[in-house]
User: Fold these one by one.
Assistant:
Number 1:
Amino acid sequence: MGTTPMARSDKHAGQGRVALVTGANRGMGLETCRQLLARGLRVVLTAREEDAAERALRTLAAPAASALALRLDVTDAASIEAARRTIEEQLGPVDVLVNNAAVLLFEESDVLEIPADGFSRTLETNLLGVIAACKAFVPPMAARGYGRVVNVSSGAGQLASMSTYAPAYSISKAALNAFTRILATTYRKKGVLANAVDPGWVRTDMGGASAPRSVEQGADGTVWLATLPADGPTGGFFHDRRPIDW
C-alpha cells in the first residue's frame, strides 16, 4: 500500500475534478454522488437506464454545471465509450472513477447449485464490468498524472473470513480485490491511486432494511478514497477508513 493508510482527504483537492460513479441511481451510489458534490467535485451519475439516472440526479438538486446524468451499463462496452465521449465534451476528462455497480444473485444458494449463468452474470458486472470501465478511464488519468479509482467491494469478498454466504457474489468481490491490487501496482508511479472499499452492511435495496449502517456511513469510506491526497494509500482494502485483511 501507499505511504500512510490513514492519510486524510484534502477537502479542497476535489475542487473542479470530475468523478464518475457507476450504478448511482439509488442507495450507495447516489449517496456517494451527493457527498462528492458536497466536496466540490463535478459528478457524473450513471445507471443502466438513462431515465433512472436523470430521476436520481433531480433528487440531488445540483447545478447543471456540476452534475451530469448518463446511461452507462458496465456490461456494454459501447455505452461506456459513449459515456466517455459525452463526459469529455460536457465536463472534461474523468479524474475519479467509483466502480459501484454490482449485482447480487443466488444469495442463499449452495455454491454447487448455482447455474453457470449465475456465476457468469455476476462476474460480468462485478468484475469484468469494472475492468471495462477502468480500460476506458484509467489510461487517460495516467497520461495526465492524476487519478483515483475506488472499487466498491464487500466484506463478503474477504478470503480471511469467507464462508458460504452468496457464493457467486463473494467470489466476484474476491476477484475484484485481486484486480484492485494489480491495477494499483501497474499505475502507482503514474499518479493513479486505486483502492477497494468495504462499506459494510448498509440499508439499501441490496442490503435490506435490517442492515445496521446508513447509506451516509457506508459511502464515507468511498468518498474518502475518491478524494485522497497525492501521498494517500494505493492497493489497499479499507473499511471505515482503516485497512482490513484481504
Number 2:
Amino acid sequence: MISIGTAYVAMGFASIMDYVQALFGFFIAPLFGTVLLGMMWKRVTKAAGFWGLLAGTLTSIGIFSAMKFDHRWVGVFALSPHAQGLAQDMYQSLWSCVTCMVVTLLVTLVTKPRPDAELKGLVYSLTEVAHEERVGLLQRPIFWGGVALVALVVLQIIFW
C-alpha cells in the first residue's frame, strides 16, 4: 500500500530525479550538517544534534511545501522566480543544512559538553592520526592510484 501511494506521489513530479532530490533534501541534507559538525567539533552534544536535525528536516519540508503551494516562494528560497524543480531541491537542501547547523550551534552553546575521554575516536580533533611507515612501492596507495589513472587514460584512448 505504501509503495502504491508513493508511486502516485512521484507522478506529481516532473521526473523521478526531482522526487528523489526532494526526499534527499528532507533527510540527507540536514543529516550532513549534523554529521559534519559532530565529527569536526568536540563540543557538539546529543541534544544539539537532535534539535538541529529536527529543525533542518522541518525547514526542508516547510520550504518544499511553501514552494509547491505558492509559487511566489520559489523566488524567495531559490533566489530566482524561474528556478525549476532540481534547482528548487538544491536550494531546499542548502537552507535545511544551514538551518540544521545554526540550530545545532545554538543548542550546543547552552548544553553541557561531554568529557574528552568519551569522545576519543569519534571526533577528528581527539583522534590519533595514523602515520604511514616506510613501505615498498607496490604497497603504496599513490602507486596504485597512478596505475589506475594510466589504465583509465589507455582505455579512454582505445574506446574513444
